[in-house]
Structure formats: C-alpha cells, structure tokens
Specification:
A hairpin with a 5-residue loop joins strand 18 (427-431) and strand 19. This protein is 36% helix and 22% strand. The protein folds into 3 domains: 3-152, 3-Layer(aba) Sandwich (Rossmann fold); 175-405, pyruvate-formate lyase- activating enzyme (Alpha-Beta Horseshoe), CATH 3.80.30; 412-469, Beta Barrel (OB fold (Dihydrolipoamide Acetyltransferase, E2P)). With 470 residues, the protein is of the alpha/beta class.
C-alpha cells in the first residue's frame, strides 16, 4: 500500500492531470477515482464532487485500482450513453470481486433517472447520488461503508453549489469551465435533462465573478460560462440589482482584457440582440456561438417543442452575422425524430447549408423514457433510415467544415496558447476566438502557455488550422 501511495503522491506532484488536492497530498490516506460522461456540466460537477471529497480527506487518483471509492458521473441523454456506463460497470465488477471493500457510486443524470432501480438492476453499485445531492456525499460514503446501500436523488430548487470552489481535474491550467446555472425549464420533447437536472436556477453573480477572478489570478486565461440555456440567466443580487446574461458577460469580461470569455449553450429563442451587442463590444468575449438547431423543419421543431420556426432560426443566424461578421457558429442536429419525412430531412440539410456551420454535433434520435416525445409520439422512423439520414447530415457538415476552415487560409488570428500540440512538442496548440484549433511552430519565440500569439494561417483540414507566428 505504501508503494501505491508513493506512486499516487508522485503523480499528484507531477501536477496537471492529477492536480486535484487541497493542501499536501501526503495528508490523504483514502483515494477516489472519478469518470465523467455526458456534457461539460457533468465534467464541471465532478470538480465540485472532488472538492467535497477533498474536504473529507479523499485524494483524487487516476488509477481506479488504487481507489477506495470509484465514482461514475453518468449521462442519460441517449440510450447509448447509458449503455456505455453499464459496460463500464462490468469492468468494475471484476475489480470488486478481488477487492470487496471498494465502494462504487453512480452520480449524475442516470442516477437521477433510475433512482432505486439502479440499486436493484446493478447489484455491485453501493451508492446512487443525483446532481443536486453532492453535498450529502460524505454521509452517503460513510453509510455505504457500513455495508448499506445509500441513495440521495432529491432535486432542489435552489442548489447551485455557489460557495464550493471546484477542484480542477485534468486541467491544462489555462482554460476552465464555470457553471452559472443549473437545470432547465424548457421542455424539448426529446430531452431527458429537465427530468434529471430539475428546475432552472441561476447562481449568485458574486460567486461567479469571484471564481473567475480567482482562476485568472492563478494563471487561467479563458473561462467558459456553462448552463443548459445560458441566455435565461437571471439573478437579483443583495442590493436589488437584476443581472441578466448580457450583464453577467460584461462583468466577467471586465475582470481583465487578458481573460477570454466563452459560453454554452444558447437557445435560439432566448439569445438577444443585447447579448450579441455585448459580445461585439468586448474583444475578449469570444466570437463564437453554439446554437443548436435540432431540425430545419418547422413542423418537426414544433413537435420537438423548440418554440421557434425555421425562419426564426435563419433570422437569428443572419442577425449574428450582421452584428459580428466574423462570428463562429456551431450547432446540434437530430436525425429521424418522430414522423420526420424525407422532405423534413432535406429541410434540415438546407438549414445547415444556409447557416454555414463551422462545426456540428450530430445524433440520431434516441427515445428516452418519461420525455414528452415518449409519452405523446411513436418512435416511428426505422433505425436504418435514421442512420442513413445521419450519415447525410455528417457528410454535409464535413464539407461545410472543410470549406469554413479553408476560407481561413491567409487570415491572421489571435490564438490563446493552451499547450504543446498533440503531435510535436516543437509546436504550440491553441484556439482562436471562433473556437477553431490552431497549430503552429514555436519558432524559438519567448511565448509560453497562456500567452496570446498572432498566427497567420497557411493551411487547413476540416478540424484544424495550421500557420506561423507573425
Ligand atoms: N441544452 C442544450 C443541449 C443539451 S443536450 C440545448 O438546449 O441545446 C445536447 C444535445 O443532445 C441536444 O442539443 C440534442 O441535439 C441532443 N439530444 C438530446 N436529447 C436527444 C435524444 N433523445 N436523442 C438524440 N439526441 C438528443
Ligand atoms: Fe434539453 Fe431543451 Fe433544456 Fe436543452 S433546452 S437541456 S435540449 S430541454
Ligand atoms: Fe447528459 Fe445530463 Fe448532461 S443527461 S448531456 S449529463 S445534463
């Protein structure tokens, strides 16, 4: 055990990937291992969990064989996401057979969706903890340690973990995520999130600013403000000031011109001109919007309960480009939603072409139990049709991406250096304001991680820009 501990301590001291510890790593005699699935919010929550467990004397380890506590922070968004977690649990089953003392906990959206059913279905799981119940983890771990199964899946109307300072896991030390709100009040018919994450609530503005300032003071140079629907951020502070998302963006951008600000996700119905104007006004608010379209057909959008039309979406894109001609744009698309015809699908392809997305996350529809769509409609598009439409969507996006990246050849961008490129340590890797990855030779310059470089683009693939410092 001493040997193992030594190894963990060494890894901890090497920093970066295993940086998560509060104080001296030697003070830990218990270790937790955490794997995160799903969206950025889940990864962010794992950092809150790490902070809560550090306080309890648990250090983080990246080797599950060394852990006393194994946690899976899970996602329910599509059936495949849940299957991945179940497969992963099979691996831990073997471990538990050899080391019965190890505790296994399931956190996040699957925990919330399945509740006690998880304990019945997956006998090796000791703890089930929903996204609003992480403060109760220490008690649940103690309870599970006595051999009882422990569970807390209560959703909250006001929990935002505002006062908890997240322990940055797997951090590059330059870019970080800051959660500004939790839950979602939209009821998109396909989506399980309102059920797994509960009602929407906004985090105290002061705690967001403090966390961002603290990151900046520690050398971070970019924060991404996170929420399922950031444009509906709304907080009334102690002095009675009402802060909306535009105000919040402005406040975070005001911390330092050297701190970049990004955000995700925007809902097409909620992103306002005011927010677009604020983006345009500040050089350090990145010119990039992730604006999920889901479908390009108004009838399908209506069935999805997205509350906008094809025309509304296209007008938003037009407005974004009017206010910020250089703005990067990405989207989410779902193929084969209930009743989708071939014509409806072609509408999705045409909306993609008209919007000229730089990047997209593309999925085929996966019915989720309990959602509006599962209750009201039949999942009637055959799997092979969904897949074929998805392939058409992916092929189109590949060519749109290639075109978008190719159009950047000859342009010069300000790039925030995030670290060495994956392939060569003689090259830097970073991103431009539009969120495109840029790789360029170090060229013996004095630049370091966290600096900004002006890079002229000389070549491109459909996912990376290459260039040189000017
Ligand atoms: N809050 C964000 C997205 C959250 S989920 C938003 O409002 O846009 C991320 C993406 O997963 C969604 O945009 C959608 O494209 C996809 N998704 C959600 N539920 C899905 C389902 N049941 N089947 C397939 N894709 C789904
Ligand atoms: Fe799901 Fe819609 Fe909320 Fe996004 S806005 S999390 S898709 S319900
Ligand atoms: Fe998945 Fe939950 Fe996020 S369902 S996408 S982890 S909010």
């Amino acid at each position: 055990m001493a040997e193992i501990l030594q190894k963990v301590v060494e890894e901890l001291r090497q920093g970066e990937a295993y940086a998560p510890f509060a104080g001296d790593p030697n003070e830990f005699n218990k270790y937790f291992y955490i794997e995160s699935y799903g969206c950025q919010m889940n990864f962010s929550d794992s950092e809150i969990v790490a902070s809560i467990l550090n306080e309890e004397g648990f250090g983080a380890t990246s080797n599950f064989e060394e852990a006393d506590l194994i946690l899976l922070n899970t996602c329910s968004i599509r059936e495949k996401a849940e299957q991945t977690v179940r497969n992963r649990l099979q691996v831990f089953r073997k471990l538990k057979n050899n080391k019965p003392g190890v505790l296994i906990g399931v956190l996040g959206c699957m925990a919330e969706r399945l509740k006690t059913k998880f304990l019945e279905e997956e006998k090796l799981v000791d703890m089930v903890v929903g996204p609003d119940a992480y403060r109760s983890l220490p008690g649940l771990v103690t309870e599970a340690g006595t051999g009882q199964k422990s569970i807390n899946v209560l959703l909250s109307r006001d929990e935002t973990y505002a006062d908890i300072s997240p322990v940055r896991l797997d951090s590059n030390g330059i870019t970080a995520f800051v959660t500004i709100m939790r839950g979602c009040n939209n009821m998109c018919a396909f989506c399980v999130v309102p059920f797994t994450r509960g009602r929407e609530r906004s985090r105290d503005v002061a705690s967001i600013i403090n966390e961002s300032k603290d990151l900046f003071d520690r050398g971070f140079r970019e924060v991404t403000l996170l929420g399922q629907n950031v444009d509906s951020y709304y907080y009334t502070d102690e002095a009675g000031n009402n802060i909306d998302f535009g105000n919040l963006l402005e406040k975070v951008a005001g911390i330092s011109p050297l701190l970049r600000v990004r955000f995700s996700t925007s809902h097409p119905k909620d992103i306002t001109d005011d927010v677009l104007m604020t983006m345009a006004k500040y050089d350090n608010i990145c010119k990039y919007i992730h604006l999920p379209v889901q479908s390009g057909n108004t009838r399908i959008l209506n069935l999805m309960n997205r509350t906008y039309t094809r025309e509304w979406y296209l007008n938003k894109v037009k407005r974004i480009r009017e206010i910020m001609p250089d703005c990067g744009l990405s989207t989410d698309v779902i193929s084969g939603f209930c009743t989708e015809t071939e014509e409806d699908h072609l509408d999705t392809l045409s909306v993609m072409e008209l919007s000229r997305f730089d990047m997209a996350y593309m999925f085929s529809y996966s019915e989720r139990p309990g959602t509006l769509a599962a209750k009201r409609y039949t999942d009637d598009i055959p799997e092979d049709v969904k897949k074929r439409r998805l392939i058409e969507i992916i092929n189109l996006q590949n060519s749109l991406s290639r075109e978008s990246y190719k159009n950047d050849i000859g342009k010069t961008f300000k790039v925030l250096i995030e670290g060495d490129s994956k392939k060569k340590d003689t090259e830097w890797c970073g991103r431009n304001s539009q969120n495109k990855v840029v790789v360029f030779a170090k060229d013996n310059s004095d630049l370091k991680k966290g600096d900004y470089a002006n890079v002229k683009i000389t070549s491109a693939t459909s996912a990376t820009l290459m260039g040189h410092i000017i």
